[in-house]
Amino acid sequence: MFAAAAQNADSLAGAYMNGEDWFALRRHVEQRRGEMSPFFVTFSEALVYGYFNRPQESCEAIDRLIGDYGDELGFDNVMSMTVQKALTLGSSGRNAEAAAAIGHFRERMADRLTAEQTAMLRSQETLCGELSRYRLFVRADERATADIPFRFDTLNERNAYMPVLDGELNGRPFDVVFDTGAGVNVVSPEVAERCGMEFLDAAVSASGITSAAGRIAVAREFRLGGIVLENVPFYVLDLRTGDERADEYLSRLQVIMGVPTMNVLGNIRLDIGRRTMTVSDRPFADDEIGWADLCCVNGNMRIEARQPDGGRLTFTLDTGSQLSSFNPNYYIRNRERLEAAGHRDSIGVAGFGGAVRTEVLTIPYERIEVGGHTCYLCNVAVHLPDNAAGHMFNRLDGTLGLDLFLHFKYVYLDMERMRLGTRY
Description:
Layout: H1 2-18, H2 22-32, H3 38-51, H4 55-73, H5 75-91, H6 95-108, H7 115-131, E1 138-139, E2 145-154, E3 161-169, E4 172-178, E5 186-187, H8 189-194, E6 198-207, E7 211-224, E8 227-236, H9 244-250, E9 255-257, H10 259-265, E10 267-271, E11 276-280, E12 290-297, E13 300-306, E14 312-317, E15 325-326, H11 328-333, H12 335-341, E16 343-351, E17 354-370, E18 373-383, E19 398-400, H13 402-405, E20 410-414, E21 419-423
Parallel strand pairs: 4-9, 5-8, 14-19, 15-18
Antiparallel strand pairs: 1-8, 2-3, 2-11, 3-4, 3-7, 5-9, 6-7, 7-8, 10-11, 10-20, 12-13, 12-21, 13-14, 15-19, 16-17, 17-18, 20-21
Helix pairs in contact: 1-2, 2-3, 3-4, 4-5, 5-6, 6-7
């Protein structure tokens, strides 16, 4: 009986891993740990702890997983988990340990690695080694609470707006875009040069519409209102696409505050009406706040929401996108209902590396629940399968953009507990 239960619990855990449903995997481990085999418990913890901001526990679970179950895991998964450990260490500022972990694996497994794998590991090791020269994200101010004004900058087209903070890089003032969809901080090459940022001797790649190479530079000082951060790394990327309309928007993205800076700030409240971002050293507490779970997968912030019937949905949380949208997987599951309500259209999608047009079904509204609060996403695009931009869409249900935030009076980001709060 126990063996059958374990097999069933393990199979479900494996299905959640393959489907990248980390919210379901976390619930599964919490509820059915006793029915799972030690291997699947350890494997699940290694992933879940990392994605839900418990880095030390994730690294410990990865060490147990590789040490106790390396043969069962297989070589490719051992390499993948070694890189995952390095990324987790790096996100905690432990880049010297990250470089050592990758270097040790690369040397020990040299005869089994392909040339491509060796190059990837060397690149990651070099990057971590370069970053280890700095004490990154040092909080230089002593404020327990800080208020930072923000605004919504608009462009000359319908619904084109972005949340912008007043900031400084190395003493020079800049508009800073608040972008939960950015897995890294970003500056343009012109800004990096103008501010005298220190370039690292390491190449990086970034993905969007296409993939391309970039560089990393470190700002000695990054100011947001009264908050002062020292030694802040930025990806240096040329966001121009060659599409005039897209570049009108992208040219405004000279400095982007991404998820790594939000992690350092910890507790963030956006007062939408008063246009004020408050950063606190303590979690915000209010009985009227409705909380939704977040996770962060290699810099990609995800949020769990619900359909009216209680079905669970997983979205990318991206304030860099003005409008929410649904992915092809959502269309496939709800095809008949959506086709009856919507009409076919095409829209332009711009991002790093280019701009494309994609086929969509536009529907009058779609109702979802976020943290127990009901939201109506109006005139929302549902991306269709097999279109020109199909490579952009992952297994998630869609993207919740800046329009979600505008439904509420307050929006909260609790990066320690990994949750998003909303309040009318």
